[in-house]
Target: DNA polymerase III subunit gamma/tau
Amino acid sequence: MPNIALYRKYRPSGFDEVIGQEHVVQTIQNAVADGAIAHAYLFAGPRGTGKTTIARLVAKAANCLHPVKGAPCGKCQNCIDISEGRAMDIVEIDAASNRGIDEIRELKEAIRSTPLALKYKVYIIDEAHQLTKEAFNALLKTLEEPPAHALFILATTSADKMPATILSRVQRFDFKKFSLEQIVQKLTAIIKAEKAKADNEALRLIAHAAQGGLRDAESMLAQVLAHSQGVVTEKAVHSVLGIAGLQQVCDVVDALAKQDAKEAIVRLNTFKNEGGNIEELFASLIDYLRKMMLLKVDPKLSDVIMPELTKEQLSRMMAQSEKFKQEDLARMLETFIEAEDAMRKTSIRILPIELALLKLFAK
Model:
């Protein structure tokens, strides 16, 4: 099976296909339906949460010849041209590589002219926080007195780096990370569409590793599909992505419960030698210990801090937590966080973990 960009192939083509950002979609649909589209929007949120995708859908909805309750029809010539990337009036700018004042000056000059075919000229500026101070000042003047045919959509992963003068002239929407269940739902739909096969636990493993980023999850799935002949199993995910499974984390935790530094070190090195990502396993271990500690504070926190775990996995975690005192878990976490920081300062990534284990269980 070829390694295809699944996040592009299965990118939503309409508002009804968007998951996880319903608060954004509904507000914008209402604005389009009421003819009250703002001249500038700011989409802020983590990477891979759909900011650029929804920006393109807004461009489509604003220019659709026959919108349906504020949503693009997907059938008119304008919708088709935008979907196929042929619309000259839709301009996407990557501020990470086009961040200077010259690029913004060119934009100011171009925006004065009327659209070639559409109702609105739409400028989508990705990673907008990376614009220079001079570029922001030039953009500010355009935002203060925008032409009636202009629509700006700024996307950023760092809204705190955006100047207050810009923030005061845009309508802001904050994008949320996707829940594990939302990501699994989308991956399951992709597997079905690709006529592939996947274990549910394998998809949950990918979803958990993506940390709320749907695009990252789709990219990971594409990697596994390309190397596993269309069958996604936990073993394939571990092998291709080097992701630590819950079983591997639990095995290390069992060694910690026995205060057996040797066994923990052997398990960590075995994982590394088999091609696993030791940084990823250590991060998963820290996260697991944190959840165990919070469970000891109040078992009712489980629904909030670990929704990705099945009932069986939660039961195992609770059983393991009984082998530790709360203060012991806190001490381990403090030691491991120091080790995680030290990992960035050495070429032997596993060494700080080994030293931390020897320090914790020194006789």
Summary: DSSP finds 18 helices and seven strands in the chain. The chain has a mean pLDDT of 90. The domain at 21-174 is CATH 3.40.50.300 (Rossmann fold). The longest strand covers residues 150-156.
